[in-house]
Task: inverse folding
């Protein structure tokens, strides 16, 4: 939802004139497509969750039978139906996002079985795809310009590290069920360092690009937000597994604020 909003801002077009499109896009990005991905993951991860988080609805038995699967299928169909109202761009983006959601969790692909592939799929959908879709639907289906695509791509790359942080909570279950998340592949300490580098490097490039494009104030703001993140990362790396939830509430908040600052930079520079 946040990334879609950043795309709307980056388009440089007045959202008030197309508020219905913005509202529908936010609804589609969050409570529909993203919720579908979570429902699909809950169903196909029910055996892993029985180890890591047995209190969740499916492994605890509070959602019995195949209802988890039924909800995932129904929400997929509902998402596609709503996406038709956003035109070809919105429908295509929703279809890609839903395909990746199923590919991430469901066999035979089950991208999450390898942390490099699974995290890439999530990062692309959560940040880049949503950003580009927000900018495109605001422009009536036109492709966003190169600056917007670059920022969307960079923040997607950084989000790969965010996805790695989410894997620290399930190391034991992943290892026992053969899921090669990065903490399983690399070990917790090394995966923590990799996640921090992956989150930080794209933001450094963003700062350089914003300064190069003639938005020094926005570049400085993103740089300041990154500087605080780096300080928080040093504490995270003392105990990546224990402090990942804390960093999600602090450092990741600063990361996404930087996304919005970058979107406003494009708006000030003339949007798409």
Result:
């Amino acid at each position: 939802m946040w990334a879609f909003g950043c795309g709307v801002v980056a388009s440089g077009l007045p959202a008030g004139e197309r508020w219905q499109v913005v509202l529908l896009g936010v609804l589609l990005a969050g409570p529909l497509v993203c919720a579908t991905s979570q429902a699909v993951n809950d169903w196909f991860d029910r055996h892993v969750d029985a180890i890591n988080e047995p209190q969740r609805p499916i492994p605890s038995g509070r959602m019995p039978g195949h209802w988890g699967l039924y909800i995932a299928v129904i929400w997929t169909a509902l998402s596609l139906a709503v996406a038709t109202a956003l035109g070809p761009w919105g429908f295509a983006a929703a279809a890609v996002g839903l395909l990746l959601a199923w590919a991430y969790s469901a066999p035979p692909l089950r991208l999450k079985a390898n942390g490099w592939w699974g995290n890439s799929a999530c990062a692309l959908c959560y940040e880049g795809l949503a950003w580009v879709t927000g900018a495109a639907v605001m422009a009536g289906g036109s492709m966003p310009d190169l600056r917007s695509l670059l920022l969307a791509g960079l923040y997607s790359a950084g989000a790969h590290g965010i996805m790695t942080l989410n894997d620290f909570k399930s190391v034991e279950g992943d290892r026992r069920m053969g899921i090669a998340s990065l903490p399983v592949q690399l070990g917790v300490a090394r995966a923590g360092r990799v996640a921090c580098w992956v989150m930080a490097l794209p933001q450094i490039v963003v700062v350089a690009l914003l300064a190069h494009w003639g938005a020094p104030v926005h570049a400085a703001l993103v740089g300041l937000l990154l500087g605080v993140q780096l300080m928080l990362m040093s504490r995270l790396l003392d105990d990546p597994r224990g402090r990942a939830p804390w960093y999600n509430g602090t450092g990741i908040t600063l990361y996404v604020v930087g996304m919005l600052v970058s979107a406003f930079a494009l708006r000030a520079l003339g949007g798409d």
About this structure: The first helix runs from residue 2 to 10. The chain has a mean pLDDT of 94.
